[in-house]
Every structure is written in C-alpha cells, then in structure tokens.
Amino acid sequence: MTTTADEGFLRRAIELAATADKSGNPPFGSLLAGPDGTVLAEDHNTSVTDNDITAHPELKLARWAAANLTPDVAAGTTMYTSCQPCRMCSGALERSGLGRVVYALSGDQLNALKPGGGFAPVPEDGPALYDEGRAVVENYYKS
C-alpha cells in the first residue's frame, strides 16, 4: 500500500524520468530514500548517452547502495522508480539488500505503451553439465 509520502517520492522519480528524456535517453528515473525518508541518491537512465545498455537508474542506485550502505541501512531503504524494474535491475536490487521498491508504471503497462511491445526473450537451454559446473562453484559457498 502506498502512502502520500510514497507518492511524493514517485513524483520526483517521474521528474528524473523527464530529465532522462530531455537528455535523449529512455524516460526512466529513480531515487533511494533512507529509513528516515532522506533522499540518499537519485539518478536517471543514461543508456543512450553513455552507450551502455545497463545504465538503468535502478541498477546504478543498487550498485551505489551496495558500495556505500551497510546491510542494516540498505534493508531500511526504499527505492522509488518511475517504472517497475526490469529483470536485470531486479536481480541487482535483490543482491544489494534494499528493503522495498515502489514504482509508478508496471512492466506490463510500459510494454503496452511501446510499439511492438517489449523485448523478445532470448532462448535459454539448461541446466547441463551439472557436476562440472557445481565443482567450480560449490567451494565458494562452503566458506
């Protein structure tokens, strides 16, 4: 359930999305609020101007949080974003330990606005060679 405070932060994320659009980038913006409601960081999409398909604001803020916040503080934060994070960004958000994400548009709503819908999924095959793959990974997680 969103609050009036959440709506204010979402409006700022939408302003950041407009900034991205004005600079020639896809119109997405995000901010990270601390447990006390202080804005800790904010960013917008720069995937075109940076020539980097991963320059989504959610991913950039997840990286920032992982590098700059303790796990306890990160767990108390809320990310406000103009659109539901994509799968790439969602993975980064999970790993960064943020506490909550609030978004304005869902991924389905976004795709309905795009000519031709969203991106086509890349076919995946697997798992394969489980024992060989496991041998490389399992010692890392035993420590």
Task: Supply database-style keywords.
alpha+beta; Cytidine Deaminase, domain 2; 4 strands; 16% strand
Give a short synopsis of this structure:
This protein is of the alpha+beta class.
- The strand order across the widest sheet is 2-1-3-4
Main sheet summary: 4 strands, mixed
Overall number of strands: 4
By DSSP (H or I, 4+ residues per run), the number of helices equals 6
Share of residues in helices: 40-55%
Describe the global form.
globular
Low-confidence segments, given as residue ranges, are: none
| Beta-strand percent range | 15-25%
Return the CATH topology: Cytidine Deaminase, domain 2
> CATH superfamily, called what?
Cytidine Deaminase, domain 2
Number of domains: 1
The structural class is alpha+beta
What average pLDDT do the residues reach?
95
CATH class: Alpha Beta
Structure, explained:
This is CMP/dCMP deaminase zinc-binding protein. It comes from Kribbella flavida (strain DSM 17836 / JCM 10339 / NBRC 14399). One of its GO terms (molecular function) is catalytic activity. It is a single chain. The chain is an alpha+beta fold. It has a single domain, classed as Cytidine Deaminase, domain 2 (3-Layer(aba) Sandwich), CATH 3.40.140.10. It has six helices and four strands, in the order αββααβαβαα. The protein starts with a helix and ends with a helix. The mean pLDDT is 95.
